[in-house]
Amino acid sequence: MDYGQPATLEFERRPDGVLEVWLARPDKHNAFNEAVIDELCAAFEVAGADDAVRCVVLGGRGKSFSAGADISWMRASGDVGYADNLDGALRMARMFQTIYECPKPVLARVHGAALGGGTGLTAVVDIAYAAESAIFGFTEVRLGIVPAVISPYVVDKLGAAKARALFLTGERFDAREAERVGLVFRSVPDDALDGAIDGGVQAVLKGGPAALGIAKNLSQRLAAIDDIGHTAELIAHVRGSDEAREGLTAFLEKRKAAWCEECDD
Ligand code: COA
């Protein structure tokens, strides 16, 4: 199968049928912009149809798994016409949906920052392993935006009550807490992360390929996630708002947002 020559991802195709997909924008903590979104979506589409791939491991090069949506891209998206804004939001929603619906088990190797959409990527995979020092959080509201396109997958894993509390506080939390609330399958000492991933991979490789796809689909049918149109429209509206423009600009200018000038760090 042809995985192309992505600019923002790296692939390792292992002889044991494991496809490693690495987010590779380490200077931006693997924040995802349009290029990452399109390449990630394409990679999971191809992997889903590739008989040689038995499972996929998603990780991040550099210090972090992913700092979420690229804040420069989010700000710029709010300033383009609504049709283009919505188109970008739909592509982002489709990326999450494509990972979610990939018929192969998808594992995540989470370290460093996994914030905003990075927490969303952790939620959308089937089995996430996190280094104890990893940091999570739905920081969106602090930027004047909302965790829209990731919300179905977060509610699927955490349940509505925990998702709501974490969406509203925007607080950062560590890997043990992420395990406690059901976001990650296991948190492990930093130096045990690769071993944990390997254990997970070896476990899923023992499953029948067709049975794995059916079992994944079965667990998802119970969650019934089907409305990415609504979440994409929501983020397209919100990121075009004055409040979002202020929040996103404040991050890029390394200052506090207007509604939070007196907030603690
Ligand atoms: N989008 C775009 N750029 C981002 C980014 C994001 N989500 N997260 C980090 N970056 C960029 C920074 O702007 C900085 O760029 P610069 O070198 O051009 O100034 C670079 O990555 C390094 O980030 P910096 O903040 O200097 O590193 P740090 O080690 O002090 O902190 C983070 C790393 C990830 C904890 C911090 O950058 C952060 O909190 N990012 C925002 C995460 C977030 O809220 N994501 C949700 C987005 S919806």
In short:
By secondary structure, this protein is α/β, with parallel strands linked by helices. 48% of the residues lie in helices and 15% in strands.
Layout of helices and strands:
Layout: E1 9-13, E2 18-23, H1 34-49, E3 55-60, H2 71-79, H3 82-101, E4 106-110, E5 113-115, H4 117-124, E6 127-131, E7 135-137, H5 151-158, H6 160-169, E8 172-174, H7 175-180, E9 186-188, H8 193-205, H9 209-221, H10 228-239, H11 242-252
Parallel strand pairs: 2-3, 3-4, 4-6, 5-7, 6-9
Antiparallel strand pairs: 1-2, 7-8
This protein binds coenzyme A (COA).
The site of coenzyme A has 17 residues, from helix 2 and strand 5.
Describe the structure.
This protein has helices at 34-49, 71-79, 82-101, 117-124, 151-158, 160-169, 175-180, 193-205, 209-221, 228-239, 242-252, and strands at 9-13, 18-23, 55-60, 106-110, 113-115, 127-131, 135-137, 172-174, 186-188. It is α/β, with parallel strands linked by helices. The protein has a domain at 9-191: 2-enoyl-CoA Hydratase, Chain A, domain 1. The strands form two sheets. It has a six-stranded mixed sheet, sandwiched between helices. Helix 2 (71-79) crosses helix 10 and helix 5 crosses helix 6 (160-169). The chain is globular, with a radius of gyration of 18 Å. The structure holds coenzyme A.
